[in-house]
Specification:
752 residues, single chain, 22-stranded antiparallel beta barrel, 6 helices, mainly beta, 5-stranded mixed β-sheet, Maltoporin, Chain A
C-alpha cells in the first residue's frame, strides 16, 4: 500500500536526525576533513556558508575514485542522474529528475553546465571529459539568479586547476581491463594525464595540461560488422596563464578537446509479450535467434549493418580580468568563446537488414558570452554582487535519415541573443540572522530558420517545408530570497524561495511541426517556470571532523518542456507537460571517525508527479496498435520520468602506515538507486529496475609524491542500463545502453 506523503516525510526526517547521532568515536579522531571552497554565489566561500543544496568534490578526490566523466559522477551525487545516448547531442544530466529534451537544438536543457565561468550552451556539448579539475560543484534547484535562464533544475559548475606559485609537474597512467561475455578479455582502456605548472616571472604564472584516452576494444560486439562498439578515443589539451600585480589580475584559459568514438550502441534487450507477432518483430527475433543472440537484459551483442560513431571538436576559451579598488570592491570582466562541432552516424533501424539509411547528424555551435560583475568587499555586514550578462549563440544542425533513394534532409539555424542584469546580496541582521536575496531581469530574442526535403520514414515529399522562419522574444525575471539562522559559526539553518525561468522552446525535431506542412501543431513551446522552496541545515562538528547536511525541497514546474522518444516514428516528441510537483529530501554526511578513517553517506528521496499532463505522447506500442487515445495520453497524477525515488551512496576508506614514510589505504564505494523510468510517455517497458554497484580500491604511497592503486569496479558484475528507449521500427521492442560489467585496473599517480 502506498504510504501518504506526510509519513514518508516523517521517515526522511528521522533518517536525517539519526545521522547526527553517529558520532561516538569522532571526538577521538586526529585528522580533519579538507574544507571545500566553492564559488556558487560568484565569490569564494566555504560550502557550509552557502544556503544552497550543493555537493562539491575536489579534483584529487575525483581522480582517486576514477571519475573522469560526468556519467561516473552521477553514481555518487544525491539527486544527480545521467542519460546516455547515441551521440553527445542527446546525452543529458538531470537534477531531481529534471533535465530537458534531447536531440533538439531549439530547446535547452534545464541543467546549466558551466566551465570556468562560461556557460557551455545547449545539448550535451558541455559533458566533455574531466581533466586537471580543481573541483566540481553540483547546485540543486533553480539557480537562474546568478547562472542564467536555463538553470531551472540546477547547475553543474566545473572549475579547472589554476597555475601555481611553485613549480610542479604531475602524471597519471590508468589501465582498465574487462571480461565481458561475449567480447572477452579484449576490452582494454588506457588513460594518461599529465601537466606542468609554475611561475614564469614574478607576476606571471602558467599551467599546461592534457590527457589521452583510448579503448583498445569496446564492450559491445557487432556480429554483423565483425567489430566492437562503444570504444573511445579522446584527447585534449589546456593552457592557462595567470598574471597579477597589485590591483589587477588576468586569467586566460584555452582548451581544445577532440574525440573519435564508435559509440554508443544500444542492443535489443526486451520485447513486450503482446508484440512478438507485430510488424517486423518476427523477422528481428528470427535474426537474433539465428546468431545466438539473446533478447535479454545482459545482451552485449549488436546487429548493426551501418557504421555508428561520433567525432567532436571542442574549443573553449575563458578570459577573466579583475580590478581591485582601494575600497575593497572588485570589478570583474569574464569573456567566453566556445565552438563545438559534432558529426555523428547511426544505424537507424539497429538491425542487420537495411530498412532505413544510416542517420547522419552535423552540429556546429558557436557562442560568445560577456559578463561584468561588481563585488562588494568580503566579510562585511552587507555583501553584494551586481552585474550584466550577454550571450550570443549560433547553432546550425543538419539531420539526414530516411529510405534509400529519398532520404529526409532537415537543416536549421538557431540564433539566440540573451541580455540580463542581475544582483545578489546578503545582509547580517544580527550575528545569528542573515537575510539573502537576488533578482535577474532578462531579455531574449530567438530565431530559427530551416527546412526539410525528402521522405521521412516513407512520408511524401509534399509534407515537407522548403523554408520556414520563426521568432520569439522573452522578457522575464528569476529570483531568490531567504533567511539563514546561525546558532554557531559552524551550524546554520536556512529557508529560501526561488523562481526559475527558461524561455520559449522551438520544436525543430526531424518530424516535428516546424519541418512538416501536414503537422499543424505550434512549433513554439511555452516558457518553463518553477517556484521552489528549500529548508536546509549545514553543520560542522568536532573541529570539522563531521560534516552533516540535509535539505527538504518542494518545486512546482509549470509548462515543463519535455520530450519522449517514439520508436514507431523514430523521432522525439516535444511538448509542454502542464504542471509537475516535485518534493524530496537530500542528505550527505562526511566524517573522520578515527585516525585514518573516512566515511561518506549521501542519499536522496524524490517524489515527482505530473500534477497536470493531458495530451501526453503515447508509447510506441500504443501508436503501432492504434491504442493511442485521441489527443494523447492523460498522465496527470502519475510519477515523472527521469529519477529514481531513492538513491544511496556510501564511501568508506581507511589509511594506515606500512613502513617508515610508506602508507597504504583500502576503500569501498557503494551506490544504489531505485527503479527508474527513462521516457516521458511512461512506457512500462522503459523502466530500469533497482540496482547497486560496488567498487573496491587498494593503494600504496611508497613516497610522498607517488601513489599506486589497484581497483575493481562493478565488482559484483551487476547488469544495468544507462538508458532504455523504444527500438526504432520495431514497436514493442526495447533497446538498452548496457553499462560495462566488472573491470579490473591499476593506476599510477606521480607529482614532482
Amino acid at each position: 500500500m502506498k504510504q501518504p506523503k506526510h509519513n514518508l516525510l516523517k521517515k526522511g526526517a528521522l533518517a536525517v536526525m539519526s545521522g547526527f547521532l553517529i558520532t561516538g568515536a569522532i571526538e577521538e579522531a586526529q585528522a580533519q576533513i579538507d574544507e571545500i571552497v566553492v564559488s556558487a554565489q560568484k565569490r569564494e566561500e566555504r560550502a557550509l556558508d552557502v544556503p544552497i543544496s550543493l555537493s562539491a568534490y575536489g579534483g584529487d578526490q575525483l581522480s582517486r575514485q576514477g571519475i573522469f566523466e560526468v556519467e561516473q559522477l552521477a553514481s555518487f551525487v544525491p539527486s544527480l542522474t545521467f542519460d546516455d545516448q547515441l551521440i553527445a547531442a542527446g546525452a543529458r544530466v538531470r537534477i531531481r529528475g529534471i533535465g530537458g529534451p534531447t536531440f533538439t537544438s531549439g530547446v535547452e536543457t534545464s541543467v546549466s553546465v558551466v566551465q570556468d565561468g562560461i556557460v557551455t550552451g545547449p545539448t550535451g556539448s558541455g559533458l566533455a571529459d574531466l581533466f586537471d579539475v580543481e573541483r566540481i560543484e553540483v547546485l540543486r534547484g533553480p539557480q537562474g539568479t546568478l547562472f542564467g535562464k536555463n538553470a531551472t533544475a540546477g547547475v553543474l559548475n566545473i572549475v579547472s586547476k589554476a597555475p601555481t606559485d611553485e613549480f610542479e609537474a604531475f602524471g597519471t597512467f590508468r589501465f582498465t581491463q574487462g571480461d565481458f561475455d561475449p567480447v572477452g578479455n579484449d576490452y582494454r582502456r588506457y588513460r594518461f594525464e599529465a601537466g606542468l605548472s609554475g611561475p614564469i616571472t614574478d607576476n606571471l604564472r602558467a599551467r599546461l595540461s592534457g590527457f589521452f584516452l583510448d579503448d583498445a576494444n569496446g564492450f559491445i560486439e557487432d556480429v554483423v560488422l565483425d567489430d566492437t562498439q562503444n570504444r573511445l578515443e579522446h584527447w585534449g589539451i589546456r593552457g592557462r596563464t595567470d598574471y597579477e600585480n597589485e590591483n589587477f589580475r588576468s586569467d586566460l584559459l584555452v582548451q581544445y578537446v577532440q574525440t573519435n568514438d564508435r559509440c554508443c550502441a544500444p542492443t535489443f534487450v526486451r520485447i513486450d509479450p503482446s508484440a512478438t507477432g507485430l510488424g517486423l518483430n518476427p523477422a528481428l527475433q528470427a535474426s537474433l535467434s539465428s546468431k545466438g543472440i539473446p533478447l535479454a537484459e545482459d545482451n552485449r551483442q549488436a546487429i548493426n549493418s551501418d557504421r555508428i560513431g561520433e567525432e567532436q571538436k571542442v574549443l573553449h576559451m575563458a578570459w577573466d580580468n579583475s580590478w581591485t579598488f582601494n575600497s575593497g570592491h572588485v570589478l570583474k570582466s569574464i569573456t567566453g568563446y566556445r565552438n563545438w562541432i559534432s558529426f555523428g552516424e547511426d544505424d537507424s533501424d539497429k538491425s542487420d537488414v537495411l530498412l532505413v539509411d544510416a542517420t547522419q547528424a552535423e552540429i556546429n555551435l558557436r557562442l560568445i558570452t560577456q559578463e561584468f560583475q561588481l563585488l562588494s568587499p568580503s566579510n562585511e555586514r552587507f555583501e553584494y554582487v551586481v552585474g550584466f550578462y550577454s550571450y550570443f549563440q549560433r547553432l546550425s544542425d543538419r539531420f539526414i535519415v530516411g529510405f534509400a533513394g529519398n532520404p529526409s534532409d532537415a537543416h536549421s539555424l538557431v540564433n539566440i541573443k540573451n541580455l540580463a542584469v542581475f544582483g545578489n546580496a546578503t545582509y547580517d541582521i544580527t550575528e545569528q540572522f542573515e537575510a539573502f536575496g537576488g533578482v535577474r531581469f532578462l531579455y531574449e530574442d530567438l530565431e530559427i530558420v530551416g527546412g526539410r526535403g525528402g521522405a521521412f520514414f516513407g512520408g511524401q515529399p509534399g509534407n515537407n517545408i522548403a523554408f520556414r522562419r520563426e521568432t520569439e522574444e522573452d522578457v522575464d525575471w528569476t529570483g531568490r530570497f531567504g533567511l539563514r539562522f546561525l546558532p554557531t559559526p559552524d551550524n546554520s539553518i536556512y529557508v529560501s524561495y526561488s523562481r526559475g525561468y527558461k524561455g520559449h522552446g522551438l520544436n525543430n525535431s526531424n518530424s516535428g511541426p516546424f519541418f512538416t506542412s501536414t503537422n499543424t501543431a505550434n512549433p513554439i513551446l511555452d516558457p518553463e517556470t518553477v517556484n521552489a522552496i528549500e529548508i536546509g541545515t549545514k553543520n560542522s562538528f568536532f573541529d570539522g571532523r563531521l560534516i552533516a547536511n540535509a535539505v527538504f525541497f518542494y518545486n512546482r514546474f509549470k509548462d515543463f518542456q519535455t520530450s519522449s522518444f517514439d520508436g514507431a516514428s523514430n523521432t522525439f516528441s516535444l511538448r509542454n507537460a502542464g504542471k509537475i510537483d516535485l518534493m524530496g529530501i537530500e542528505i550527505d554526511f562526511t566524517a573522520e571517525p578515527w585516525e585514518g578513517g573516512f566515511l561518506y553517506l549521501g542519499g536522496a528521496w524524490i517524489d515527482g508527479e505530473f500534477e497536470e499532463f493531458t495530451g501526453a505522447p503515447c508509447t510506441a506500442l500504443q501508436n503501432a496498435t492504434g491504442a493511442c487515445p485521441v489527443g494523447g495520453q492523460d498522465l496527470s497524477g502519475r510519477k515523472i520520468d527521469g529519477t529514481p525515488e531513492f538513491q544511496l551512496s556510501i564511501i568508506a576508506r581507511q589509511d594506515f602506515p606500512i613502513a617508515n614514510d610508506v602508507f597504504g589505504y583500502v576503500s569501498t564505494e557503494f551506490s544504489w538507486q531505485d527503479d527508474r523510468q527513462f521516457n516521458a510517455d511512461l512506457d512500462p517497458l522503459l523502466v530500469q529496475e533497482a540496482y547497486s554497484v560496488t567498487n573496491f580500491r587498494a593503494g600504496v604511497l611508497p613516497t610522498e609524491n607517488t601513489e599506486l592503486t589497484f581497483f575493481v569496479e562493478n565488482a559484483f558484475d551487476k547488469v544495468y542500463a544507462t538508458n532504455l528507449r523504444p527500438a526504432p521500427v520495431f514497436a514493442g521492442v526495447v533497446g538498452g545502453f548496457v553499462a560495462p560489467g566488472r573491470t579490473f585496473g591499476v593506476e599510477l599517480r606521480a607529482n614532482f
